[in-house]
């Protein structure tokens, strides 16, 4: 077959020290400096959000150049996150499942444009014919979780086929191929297709064929694996243990777990030709065309065979996916032209700009200045205040800057007003200040990570203007000047 081109208890955390991360061997001096910046960003993020623990990794040219760890995988036992901690992947699991289907297609074992009913005759004729490609791109018409599914994590399903029985008799939301509608149930069905064509259980195919040697497999959060992080949720701004949750209803849609390094290596190997060919991977990034000629889209990204495809803030092409579920927030971002992969995984359900956070953690390792480069600015160590505009409103506050180990570090006190109200309008920990971490290797403040309770964001000096700008999304930005 060929590709169709059209086609925690918050108070517990106070006073606990965060252990030093385990560092990969063999990095260059530039990588060492980059690692210190990314370590600092990750630690500041855990502090700002109140998420008990996070891990992250960056892989370049197929080699791990950084693994970062911050906080605790088990607060109650005082066990820190380390390089070997496994987190829930949530919906990042979907790109693993899509890659499994793509590999089978490449081997001639799966026709991704044939009706799924021909692969799984036990489905019957309840639905109009739908294809593997449509399942992978969320255009099959299958629904996502519904009210009747609320207790789905309280039951263990012995097989993928048994899990498909949960939704097998439901009506499609649309004619297959005519509309984009995100569906984790579609990925449960996709995992059944993989299992049928691979001839082995889905989880075995993932662990033995797609990810041999990687710490990537079924979620083990509620089991006996001491390396698996506990799961947390936020209640009144504090992280508390989440109840057990069995993901056997959708291993392929949101039930896998991995270390940050393992999932970043998986992404790097997928785009590097080690799991599927580079041509096959490129085909996975081809946007899915709907029946009316429009493209499947999720917010500002097009949707291909499992992957969302867009651009970073500098216009570089990225393939990415994020995940959210009880006890997890996750992201994997790939830069195919740069052969760079970055992941960030966490052990609590929190509202976040998680893809942007993964992107910022990788900035020190990218080795290329953004285009156009922000104008050079010295660290404003003499500044004591700032003026700002946010959501069309002007306000001011106090600021403090200092040089720490060659890095410009700033603290912005949040005065009562629109910015403070917005950043504190989410379930996680509230903030009375925001930290800035300079990303200029020369110690200036031309570019910085601004650390908020919803993630890391990109602050840049503005050409021809005295101030800085950070975008929190397509419709929300903050401008700043320091005095």
TrEMBL record:
Tell me the SUPFAM superfamilies matching this sequence: beta-lactamase/transpeptidase-like
What Gene3D superfamilies does this protein's entry cite? Answer: DD-peptidase/beta-lactamase superfamily
Which Pfam families does the UniProt record give?
Beta-lactamase (PF00144)
Residues in domain Beta-lactamase-related? Answer: 39-348
Q: Which domain of life is it from?
A: Bacteria
Name of protein: Beta-lactamase family protein
């Amino acid at each position: 077959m060929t590709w169709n081109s059209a086609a925690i208890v918050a108070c517990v955390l106070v006073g606990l020290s965060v252990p030093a991360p385990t560092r990969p061997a063999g990095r260059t001096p530039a990588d060492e400096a980059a690692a210190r910046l990314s370590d600092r960003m990750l630690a500041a993020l855990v502090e700002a959000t109140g998420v008990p623990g996070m891990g992250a990794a960056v892989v370049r040219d197929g080699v791990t150049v950084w693994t970062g760890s911050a906080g605790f995988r088990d607060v109650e036992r005082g066990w820190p996150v380390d390089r070997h901690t496994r987190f829930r992947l949530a919906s990042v699991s979907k790109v693993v499942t899509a890659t499994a289907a793509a590999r089978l297609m490449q081997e001639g074992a799966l026709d991704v444009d044939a009706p799924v009913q021909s692969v799984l005759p036990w489905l019957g004729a309840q639905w109009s014919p739908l294809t593997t490609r449509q399942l992978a791109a969320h255009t099959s018409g299958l629904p996502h979780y519904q009210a009747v599914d609320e207790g789905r994590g309280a039951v263990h399903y012995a097989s993928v086929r048994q899990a498909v029985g949960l939704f097998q008799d439901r009506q499609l939301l649309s004619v297959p191929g005519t509309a984009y509608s995100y569906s984790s149930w579609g990925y449960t069905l996709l995992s059944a297709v993989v299992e049928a064509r691979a001839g082995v259980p889905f989880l075995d195919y993932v662990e033995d064929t797609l990810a041999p040697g990687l710490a990537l497999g079924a979620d083990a959060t509620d089991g006996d694996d001491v390396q698996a992080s506990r799961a947390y949720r936020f209640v009144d701004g504090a992280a508390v243990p989440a109840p057990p949750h069995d993901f056997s209803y959708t291993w392929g849609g949101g039930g896998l777990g991995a270390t940050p390094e393992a999932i970043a290596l998986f992404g790097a190997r997928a785009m590097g030709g080690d799991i599927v060919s580079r041509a096959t991977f490129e085909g996975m990034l081809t946007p899915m065309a709907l029946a009316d000629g429009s493209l499947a889209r999720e917010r500002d990204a097009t949707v291909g065979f499992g992957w969302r495809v867009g651009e970073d803030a500098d216009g570089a092409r990225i393939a990415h996916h994020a995940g959210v579920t009880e006890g997890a927030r996750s992201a994997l971002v790939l830069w195919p032209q740069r052969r760079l992969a970055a992941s960030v995984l966490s052990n609590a359900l929190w509202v976040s700009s998680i893809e942007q956070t993964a992107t910022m953690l990788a900035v020190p390792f990218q080795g290329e200045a953004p285009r156009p480069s922000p104008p050079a600015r010295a660290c404003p160590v003499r500044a004591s205040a700032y003026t700002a505009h946010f959501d069309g409103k002007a306000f001011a506050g106090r600021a403090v800057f200092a040089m720490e180990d060659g890095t410009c570090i700033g603290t912005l006190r949040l005065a009562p007003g629109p910015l403070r109200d917005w950043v504190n309008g989410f379930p996680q920990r509230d903030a009375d200040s925001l930290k800035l971490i300079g990303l200029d290797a020369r110690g200036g403040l031309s570019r910085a990570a601004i650390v908020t309770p919803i993630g890391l964001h990109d602050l840049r000096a503005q050409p021809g203007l005295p101030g800085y700008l950070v975008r929190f999304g397509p419709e929300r930005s903050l401008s700043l000047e320091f005095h």
